[in-house]
Structures are given as structure tokens and as C-alpha cells.
Design goal:
Elements (H helix, E strand, L loop, with lengths): L19 E9 L3 H9 L4 H4 L3 E9 L5 E12 L9 E15 L4 E8 L6 E9 L2 E10 L7 H36 L1
Antiparallel strand pairs: 1-7, 2-3, 3-4, 4-5, 5-6, 6-7
Length: 184
Amino acid sequence: MSRELAGPFELGPMPIGCAMEEVDSQYVHAPIPKMFGLAARVEKWPTYLPHYRYVKFRERRSDGGGVVEMSAYRPFSMPKRLRLPLRFNWPTWWLSEMSVDETKASIRFRHIGGITKGMEVEWTFMPAPNGTHVRIVHVWDGPGLEIGEFAATWVIGPIFIHGIASRTLAGLAAVAEKTSRITQ
């Protein structure tokens, strides 16, 4: 007996005017379908990205999205001036609704669990000469604490969100570029 998947989440347009807005973008020397495909198959991210601990779908939707649980490390190392070869990985965790729109070449997330609950994320893929321009936007008003806006704009956004998103984008771009050279 086959079970029909529910339709995509309707996450709507990205909100504007949030306290925190983090943008990561990169030119990728690979076609949109290659980069978009890698980004949309989030369950494969730990295969390509060593900073990802796991990605699990709790629920799948007809567009390839669903409710997805993700966990990644934010690596840190001591400043070189301290001369301590100490490195450590800070584990992070979040739960998101995910929608995939192939016609618009965009992937949307809304965090529904974890410290970043309420965060909105959008990946967009635009044609560029001999490749793709990928842009990831995270917007959020912070956790529901008195210091929430400060935490979002000065700690969580620039240190954790950017630290993980920039590595994710660079890692997926490297895979897309490597596999595009092989298939060209």
C-alpha cells in the first residue's frame, strides 16, 4: 500500500525587518541543476560535509522537502597568538520545515525547533557566466529571551549561523565543481 505524500509547506516570502540578517553567497563553477540538486538533497549533506553530524527527515513532502532535523558542528580553534593547539567542535541542532521550489530554484526553511526557532532561511540559485551564484539568507528576531536580539545579531548570527552556512556553501560548491568537471 503506497502512501501519498502531503503537499509542500507554504512558507511564503522571506520576512523583512528582522533584527538579524546573515547573508552568505558564492559563485559556483557548475550549472544550476547540479548545485541546486546537491543543496536540495539535505539528507546527503553529512556525506559531503564533515561539519554535519546528521540530517534526518521526520516527515517527507511531495516537493522533496518536509520536516527535517539537522545537526552540525561549529568548529573553533584557539587564536594562534595563545600558542595552544586547541580545537573543539560546538554541536548545534535544529528542526525545520523545508520546501523545495525547482521552478524558482529556491529552497526555504523555517526553524520550528531548537534555539533558532522562528528563523527563516532561503537558498536561491541564479545563473552566472559559466556557473551559478548561490545566496543563502538567514533572518531572525532572536530567541525569546530579554537578550534575544543581542544574542541573534552579535553571537548566534555572525558566529554560529555564518560559521556553519559558509562552510556548507563552500563544501557543496566544491562537490558541484568537482563533479561538473568530471561530467563535462
